[in-house]
Design goal:
The chain starts with a helix and ends in a 16-residue tail after the last helix. By secondary structure, it is mostly helical. It is globular. The chain is built from twelve helices and no strands. The chain has one domain (35-230): Rhomboid-like fold (Up-down Bundle).
Length: 249
């Protein structure tokens, strides 16, 4: 056996070195994933969306079509059953891309909940959903009543969670500072434009959805952002070993 062959065999007998994964990286990754303990609203909402997505996929089509028609926040439903449609339209996804919404909620909803709590995050989310829906659909109702738009304009499937997460995203953008805020704002505006252009840009439902996304994002940016920053700035920490003043009540 030659010396070169013997060297190759010795190298082959050596154990393969393990690739060490830093624990800090794993911990950092685990922190951003929604969890029932840290972000119960985000985690629970994603579970709800998973359940309704599976329902749409495996349940009887006649049943699911009926449920979607009752939940849609189109002008017809808002006139006949406003509370039902407003409360249930945000529990459905318009497609089966649930994993994509996991990423979106991880980026646009969970950070707000970690900083301000589940109740505040839910308030921001649903207030944007309701406001953007009313701002975009009430003019459609008025135009139908004035016979400017046909009655068919009040019957289209309007469901989804995008108004909610654009509101929380807008609030998060405001909480950033300097160039980070400008960059995040540009990304958010571009995302709204891409969604609009990827559909049928000239159709009425696409225009209504575009306006809804813009209203929701800027409602979060201009209304909720300053208020949340004021809430964060107004928090005071009591140093260890000291107590706050006793209540006189």
């Amino acid at each position: 056996m030659t010396g070169e062959a013997r060297t190759m065999l010795l190298k082959a007998d050596r154990p393969v070195p393990r690739i060490a994964v830093p624990r800090r990286s794993l911990r950092a990754f685990a922190k951003i994933i929604p969890s029932p303990k840290v972000t119960p609203f985000t985690f629970g909402y994603l579970l709800l969306l998973l359940g309704t997505t599976l329902l749409l996929k495996f349940a009887d089509p006649e049943l699911t079509d009926r449920l979607l028609q009752l939940s849609s926040t189109d002008a017809h439903n808002l006139w006949r059953r406003p509370l039902t449609s407003l409360l249930t339209s945000a529990i459905w996804l318009s497609d089966e891309g649930w994993l994509a919404y996991v990423v979106i909620f991880t980026i646009a909803v969970a950070p707000l909940e970690r900083r301000f709590g589940a109740r505040r995050a839910a308030t921001v989310f649903f207030s944007g959903h309701v406001l953007a829906t009313l701002v975009t659909e009430l003019p459609v109702m008025a135009l139908i009543s004035a016979h400017v738009l046909p009655n068919s304009a009040g019957h289209w499937l309007d469901i989804g969670v995008s108004y909610g997460f654009f509101t929380t995203a807008g609030a998060l953008v405001f909480l950033l500072r300097g160039r980070a805020r400008l960059a995040a704002l540009a990304v958010m505006e571009a995302f709204i434009a891409v969604i609009w252009l990827s559909d049928d840009p000239a159709s009425l439902d696409s225009i209504v959805t575009l306006l809804g996304h813009a209203v929701a994002a800027h409602f979060g940016l201009l209304f909720w952002g300053p208020r949340l920053r004021g809430t964060a700035a107004g928090r005071t920490r009591i140093p260890a070993g000291r107590q706050g003043p006793e209540s006189v009540v």
